[in-house]
Structure to design on (252 residues):
């Protein structure tokens, strides 16, 4: 992995669908670390936000060219670590399943169920690497979750505290039956990128928490069970919900 000279990075932010850059960053410099796991989804933009250096990476690439199952999650986290990040705020665009998570809601989930398959989900993949069995009972770092919720409260931004994120394979959206099963399993939110990112962050020893942006009702979950989910709706709702993001980040 490259060793890069850097100012201390207070926070790394990984942006999801509809969040390809952070307007709040000033004095931006760009880094392109290549890691032992390969190249990240795109450049890392490091800028100043509320007086602190913050690193930003677009999870799908800045032109949204990398689908969820093709993202090199290990390289993304390794690249953020290489520029000095120790704490990661993951912004994930999701569908809402249960009543508290309607479109345009911001949520800070505390649990995950992983339905993805075939993704490299560990740093132990290569032969000869140490076998890790990290504790993952609380998949998001409780202290970082608490900071996010406190910042939201200071900024007057409504964020739903808790809930379970169900990570699906994508890139297609789910069937109504899949969402009904996820609801029975206890999922409140559904997205395609929450895993293996959170598990890898734990293996890297990074603090990691998710701020989920609800873009739509998941299939069959809303008041009109036959409503179709469109990319237009997703992007419009992410943009609307994103209005709370700037104040929250300034307060964090
Ligand atoms: N399902 C999975 N991922 C998503 C959704 C959804 O309904 N909306 C935004 N990301």
């Amino acid at each position: 992995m490259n060793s890069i000279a850097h100012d201390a990075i207070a926070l790394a932010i990984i942006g999801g669908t509809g969040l390809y850059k952070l307007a709040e960053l000033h004095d931006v410099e760009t880094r392109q670390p290549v890691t032992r796991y390969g190249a990240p989804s795109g450049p890392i933009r490091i800028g100043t936000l509320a007086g602190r250096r913050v690193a930003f990476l677009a999870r799908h690439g800045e032109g949204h060219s990398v689908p969820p199952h093709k993202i090199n999650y290990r390289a993304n986290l390794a690249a953020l670590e290489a520029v000095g990040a120790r704490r990661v705020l993951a912004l994930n665009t999701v569908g809402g399943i249960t009543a508290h998570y309607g479109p345009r809601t911001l949520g800070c989930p505390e649990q995950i169920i992983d339905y993805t398959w075939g993704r490299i989900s560990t740093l132990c993949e290569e032969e000869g690497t140490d076998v890790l069995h990290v504790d993952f009972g609380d998949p998001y770092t409780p202290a970082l979750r608490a900071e996010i919720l406190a910042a939201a409260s200071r900024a007057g931004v409504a964020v739903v505290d808790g809930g379970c994120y169900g990570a699906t394979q994508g890139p297609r959206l789910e069937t109504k039956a899949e969402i009904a099963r996820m609801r029975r399993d206890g999922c409140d939110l559904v997205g395609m990128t929450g895993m293996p990112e959170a598990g890898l962050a734990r293996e890297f020893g990074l603090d990691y928490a998710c701020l989920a942006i609800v873009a739509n009702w998941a299939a069959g979950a809303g008041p009109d069970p036959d409503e179709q989910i469109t990319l237009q709706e997703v992007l419009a709702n992410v943009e609307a919900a994103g209005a709370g993001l700037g104040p929250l980040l300034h307060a964090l």
Residues 93-95, 168, 173-174, 190-192, 215-216, 218, 229, 234 surround hypoxanthine (CB under 6 Å).
